[in-house]
Structure formats: C-alpha cells, structure tokens
Amino acid sequence: MSSKINGTSELIFGGVGAAYRNIAPAWRGAWAGLIFSGLTTGLWLATARTAPHAPSTLIWWILTVVAGLMAKGAAYRLAVGRGKPGPGGLQLGRVELNLVVVALLTFAFLFVLGLLLLVVLLCTAYAVASAGPGFVASEVATWAGAIVGRGRVVFGLVALVGAAGMIWAGARICLAAAVTVARDEIQVLATWPMTRDRVAPIVLAGILTAAGPLAVLAIVHLALRLAAADPSILFAGKIVAGLILVGLWVPMGIGLMAYLQRRLS
Prior knowledge:
There is one protein chain. The protein is mainly alpha-helical. It has 9 helices and no strands. α4 (about 95-130) packs antiparallel against α6 (about 150-170) and α8 packs antiparallel against α9 (about 230-265).
C-alpha cells in the first residue's frame, strides 16, 4: 500500500517537475516555432474579439493551427528524443502528420462518447420531467421547467457522472500523441492499457501543471481589464496572452506527457 502511494505521488510531482523543466529545452530547440505560434494565437484572439466574422479572423485561425502544429511537433521531437526539429522548430514532416491523425482519432473517439452521453442526458431529462408539472412530451421546451425537486438532483448527478466519465476516457488516451511520436506509429486506443489505475494521478498532475500558466494568464487578464479603455493596449495584451499560452503551456504539457509516456510504457 505504501509503495503504491509513493508511486502515485512520484507520478504526480515527478510529472509536474518534468513539465516545468521542459520549458528551457523546448525554447532552446523550438524558439521560432513557439514565437510564431504564440504570435498567431495572439493575433487570432485579438481579431476574434474585434471582428469575429471577418475573413482575417479565419486566416489567423488557420495560421494558428499550422503554427501550433509545428511548435508541438518540434517540442515532442525534443521531449521524446525523435531527432532534432527544423530550424528553430519550424518544420512539417511525418511527426506533424502523425499528430494530426492522432488529434482526429482522439476527437472522433470523444465525439462518439459525447453523443452517447447526450442520449443518456436526454433520456434522463425525459424520465424525470415526465413526473413534473407542465410536462408535454411533444414540446421539448417544457422539459426543463418540469424538472423540479428530486428530479433536478437526479439529472445533476447523471450529468456529473457523465462529465467525470468523459474526463476519465480522455485521460485513458492522453498519452496518444507522446507514444505516437516516440514509436513513430499511430497509437490512440493502443495506449489505453498504459493508463490503467493511473487516471487520478494523471488528471491531478495535469491540473497542477496548468495552474502556473493559468495564474500568469489571470494576471494578464486583470491588467487588460484595468486598461479596457485603450484599444491598443488591449490588442497588445492579446498578443502577450497568446505568447504566454503557447510559450508556457505547450512545453509544459508536452513535458508532462513525455514523462508519463516514459514512466508508463
């Protein structure tokens, strides 16, 4: 029992430590990719706020996706020892293509689970609303008002369990990208056994890792609110937020996943 607790704590705090330690190596090897990705992210955030339906917003979003892919590809190459990235981390190759495939497969898996959860929620809503006042089966708009008292508790518990299940499923395949890059072959559901009995420490390590970048972003957001009357400061603030989001979270998140991949392989 004691060894299991020690192993769990080592997995959590070792992962968080690896996340922070990966910032410097990632910036040394992928500085251009991280800056490019941070700038495009900031520009997309700025244009999405001022002109959400403008063509420029779509262009910046596309550039953000491409730049983010290069930055993540470079950081993963460095973190799992798959060779040197391109100049400053600017490259598009097999690793980046594999990351796209992994992202699509992961999205498809979670999307199907999300649809199943939606069906369960609709069935639960129908069941608990049918016992409430004003319920009309053919009018969905009446369902919410008919869910009262214990019905709300039941529906809330089902929704909470469903959300926890989605987080659990996401954690079970969270190593897909790291394992795929490390082994140079697509691995998504194949990583499922690696995370058995490790969901709680993985989720906790992820939360602790994200706490640092989120705290910095919160400070930037507060500063932006204080300077809300100046559009130029707001625009510059979005750029800074993009650089922080990419410059910290990408190296840290990948450092955590690379550490877990090494420990759990």
